Amino acid sequence: MNWLDICALDEINVLGSRIVVGPKGDIAIFRTSNDEVFALDDRCPHKGGPLSQGLIYGKRVACPLHNWQIDLESGEALAPDVGCTHKYSVKVENGRVLLSLEEASLCA
Q1: pTM, whole model, 2 decimals?
Q2: What is the pLDDT of residues 40-61, one digit of tens each?
Q3: Which SS3 state, helix, strand or coil, does residue 48 take?
Q4: N or C: which end of the chain has fewer CB within 10 A?
Protein backbone atom coordinates (compact mmCIF):
# COMPACT_ATOMS: atom_id res chain seq x y z
CA MET A 1 0.00 0.00 0.00
CA ASN A 2 1.33 3.44 -0.88
CA TRP A 3 1.05 6.00 1.91
CA LEU A 4 0.98 9.75 1.34
CA ASP A 5 2.44 11.94 4.09
CA ILE A 6 -0.28 14.54 4.68
CA CYS A 7 0.81 16.56 7.71
CA ALA A 8 1.78 16.38 11.36
CA LEU A 9 -1.07 15.23 13.61
CA ASP A 10 -0.76 18.51 15.53
CA GLU A 11 -1.63 20.40 12.34
CA ILE A 12 -5.19 19.07 12.57
CA ASN A 13 -7.11 20.59 15.47
CA VAL A 14 -8.62 18.21 18.02
CA LEU A 15 -12.23 17.66 16.88
CA GLY A 16 -11.23 19.23 13.57
CA SER A 17 -10.46 18.19 10.03
CA ARG A 18 -8.20 18.85 7.09
CA ILE A 19 -9.12 18.63 3.43
CA VAL A 20 -6.90 16.80 0.95
CA VAL A 21 -7.57 17.00 -2.78
CA GLY A 22 -7.94 13.45 -4.09
CA PRO A 23 -8.23 12.14 -7.64
CA LYS A 24 -12.02 11.90 -7.33
CA GLY A 25 -12.69 14.94 -5.13
CA ASP A 26 -11.94 16.26 -1.69
CA ILE A 27 -11.11 13.92 1.18
CA ALA A 28 -11.67 15.02 4.77
CA ILE A 29 -9.27 13.77 7.43
CA PHE A 30 -10.83 13.97 10.89
CA ARG A 31 -9.14 14.01 14.32
CA THR A 32 -11.13 12.91 17.35
CA SER A 33 -10.68 13.97 20.97
CA ASN A 34 -8.65 10.74 21.47
CA ASP A 35 -6.28 11.63 18.60
CA GLU A 36 -7.75 8.95 16.33
CA VAL A 37 -7.81 9.83 12.64
CA PHE A 38 -10.34 8.87 9.99
CA ALA A 39 -10.66 9.77 6.32
CA LEU A 40 -13.88 10.04 4.30
CA ASP A 41 -14.95 11.68 1.08
CA ASP A 42 -15.88 15.24 2.01
CA ARG A 43 -19.47 14.70 0.85
CA CYS A 44 -22.46 13.69 2.91
CA PRO A 45 -24.41 10.86 1.23
CA HIS A 46 -27.63 12.86 1.67
CA LYS A 47 -27.15 16.10 -0.31
CA GLY A 48 -23.37 16.32 -0.66
CA GLY A 49 -22.80 18.61 2.31
CA PRO A 50 -19.17 19.25 3.34
CA LEU A 51 -18.55 16.81 6.18
CA SER A 52 -15.26 18.60 6.96
CA GLN A 53 -17.35 21.51 8.27
CA GLY A 54 -19.45 19.32 10.57
CA LEU A 55 -19.21 18.83 14.31
CA ILE A 56 -17.19 15.82 15.47
CA TYR A 57 -18.16 13.95 18.61
CA GLY A 58 -17.01 10.50 19.58
CA LYS A 59 -16.45 8.67 16.29
CA ARG A 60 -19.16 10.57 14.42
CA VAL A 61 -19.47 13.71 12.36
CA ALA A 62 -22.70 15.66 11.93
CA CYS A 63 -23.27 17.04 8.44
CA PRO A 64 -23.61 20.83 8.67
CA LEU A 65 -26.50 20.95 6.17
CA HIS A 66 -29.13 18.61 7.62
CA ASN A 67 -27.43 17.10 10.70
CA TRP A 68 -27.07 13.59 9.30
CA GLN A 69 -24.80 11.57 11.61
CA ILE A 70 -21.97 9.78 9.80
CA ASP A 71 -19.90 7.06 11.48
CA LEU A 72 -16.22 7.93 10.98
CA GLU A 73 -15.08 4.30 11.06
CA SER A 74 -17.45 2.98 8.40
CA GLY A 75 -18.69 6.03 6.50
CA GLU A 76 -22.28 4.90 7.11
CA ALA A 77 -25.13 7.23 8.02
CA LEU A 78 -26.69 6.36 11.36
CA ALA A 79 -30.37 5.39 11.59
CA PRO A 80 -32.92 6.55 10.77
CA ASP A 81 -30.88 7.90 7.84
CA VAL A 82 -29.51 5.54 5.20
CA GLY A 83 -26.47 6.00 2.98
CA CYS A 84 -22.70 6.00 3.09
CA THR A 85 -19.61 7.76 1.86
CA HIS A 86 -16.24 6.36 0.78
CA LYS A 87 -13.68 5.77 3.50
CA TYR A 88 -9.91 5.67 3.14
CA SER A 89 -7.11 4.02 5.10
CA VAL A 90 -5.35 6.52 7.31
CA LYS A 91 -2.86 6.14 10.15
CA VAL A 92 -0.48 8.08 12.36
CA GLU A 93 3.21 7.13 12.48
CA ASN A 94 5.87 9.13 14.28
CA GLY A 95 3.39 11.97 14.72
CA ARG A 96 2.65 12.16 10.97
CA VAL A 97 -0.74 11.53 9.35
CA LEU A 98 -0.48 9.09 6.43
CA LEU A 99 -3.25 8.46 3.90
CA SER A 100 -3.67 5.71 1.31
CA LEU A 101 -5.81 6.32 -1.75
CA GLU A 102 -5.55 2.67 -2.84
CA GLU A 103 -7.89 1.24 -0.26
CA ALA A 104 -10.88 3.49 -0.83
CA SER A 105 -14.03 1.55 -0.08
CA LEU A 106 -17.76 2.12 -0.03
CA CYS A 107 -19.74 0.75 2.87
CA ALA A 108 -22.28 -1.94 2.12
Answers
A1: 0.92
A2: 999 999 999 999 999 999 999 9
A3: coil
A4: C
